[in-house]
């Protein structure tokens, strides 16, 4: 088991998240959370799955079944702020999510469910679910770290999202291209003095601008975090 790095940088409000399942989605969520400065523990019953995290992953990795109490305790569920069950099995995801919430009192939980009818039933029980769609990773990051919806619009394929950002004052006076380079997104439009504006490479960000960025789904939350923090050269 690898311990969480105490020197990670990122958002001001750090959460501790336990992720069950280290497949494509689980590993993407875990590494994205780490990049955002959060602490993460990942559970999987297949030790080789942890290879998806990379050798420099600073979080915990725990071998076992995600609905096993002892395994969850080893992953730090007793101090977790959030829990995500994203394994390949609906039953395992729901059982582990209910154990996390009902046994260990984790309020912020989310389960990946393949069966749409079952997902609707669990939503009615108060368990947020995500399906196997292109924006799964972004939806999970939103559910685990945000209190309100991140994206304002998505294209019909779910590949691109537009979101409003609360721009840090350090970006005022910078060109939109500086923000785009730092966030890996595109500034789709601004609202300035009550009027919409399509920016170009010469547009300079001003105080009180409402800024909307376009980003590939799965990277929206990370882009927002970069925009809400000062430019790197001001840190």
From TrEMBL:
<dbReference type="InterPro" id="IPR050721">
    <property type="entry name" value="Trk_Ktr_HKT_K-transport"/>
</dbReference>
<dbReference type="InterPro" id="IPR036291">
    <property type="entry name" value="NAD(P)-bd_dom_sf"/>
</dbReference>
<dbReference type="InterPro" id="IPR036721">
    <property type="entry name" value="RCK_C_sf"/>
</dbReference>
<dbReference type="GO" id="GO:0005886">
    <property type="term" value="C:plasma membrane"/>
</dbReference>
<keyword id="KW-0520">NAD</keyword>
<dbReference type="InterPro" id="IPR006036">
    <property type="entry name" value="K_uptake_TrkA"/>
</dbReference>
<dbReference type="InterPro" id="IPR006037">
    <property type="entry name" value="RCK_C"/>
</dbReference>
<keyword id="KW-0630">Potassium</keyword>
<dbReference type="GO" id="GO:0015079">
    <property type="term" value="F:potassium ion transmembrane transporter activity"/>
</dbReference>
<dbReference type="Pfam" id="PF02254">
    <property type="entry name" value="TrkA_N"/>
</dbReference>
<keyword id="KW-0633">Potassium transport</keyword>
<dbReference type="Pfam" id="PF02080">
    <property type="entry name" value="TrkA_C"/>
</dbReference>
<dbReference type="InterPro" id="IPR003148">
    <property type="entry name" value="RCK_N"/>
</dbReference>
<keyword id="KW-0813">Transport</keyword>
<protein>
    <recommendedName>
        <fullName>Trk system potassium uptake protein TrkA</fullName>
    </recommendedName>
</protein>
<feature type="domain" description="RCK N-terminal">
    <location>
        <begin position="14"/>
        <end position="132"/>
    </location>
</feature>
<feature type="domain" description="RCK C-terminal">
    <location>
        <begin position="150"/>
        <end position="229"/>
    </location>
</feature>
<keyword id="KW-0406">Ion transport</keyword>
């Amino acid at each position: 088991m690898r311990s969480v790095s105490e020197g990670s940088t990122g958002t001001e409000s750090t959460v501790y998240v336990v992720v069950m399942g280290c497949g494509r989605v689980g590993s993407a969520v875990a590494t994205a959370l780490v990049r955002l400065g959060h602490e993460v523990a990942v559970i999987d019953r297949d030790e080789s799955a942890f290879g998806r995290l990379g050798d420099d992953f600073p979080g915990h990795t725990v071998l076992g079944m995600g609905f096993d109490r002892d395994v969850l305790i080893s992953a730090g569920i007793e101090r977790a702020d959030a829990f995500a069950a994203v394994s390949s099995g609906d039953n395992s995801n729901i059982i582990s999510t209910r154990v996390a919430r009902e046994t260990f009192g984790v309020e912020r939980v989310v389960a990946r469910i393949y069966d749409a009818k079952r997902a609707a039933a669990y939503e009615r029980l108060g368990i947020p679910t995500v399906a196997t769609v292109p924006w799964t990773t972004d939806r999970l990051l939103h559910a685990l770290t945000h209190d309100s919806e991140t994206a304002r619009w998505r294209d019909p394929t779910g590949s691109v999202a537009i979101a409003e950002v609360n721009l840090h004052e350090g970006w005022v006076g910078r060109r939109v291209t500086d923000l785009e380079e730092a966030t890996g997104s595109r500034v789709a439009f601004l609202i300035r003095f009550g009027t919409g504006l399509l920016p170009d490479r010469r547009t300079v960000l001003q105080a009180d601008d409402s800024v909307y960025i376009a980003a590939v789904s799965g990277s929206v939350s990370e882009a927002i975090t970069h925009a809400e923090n000062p430019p790197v050269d001001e840190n």
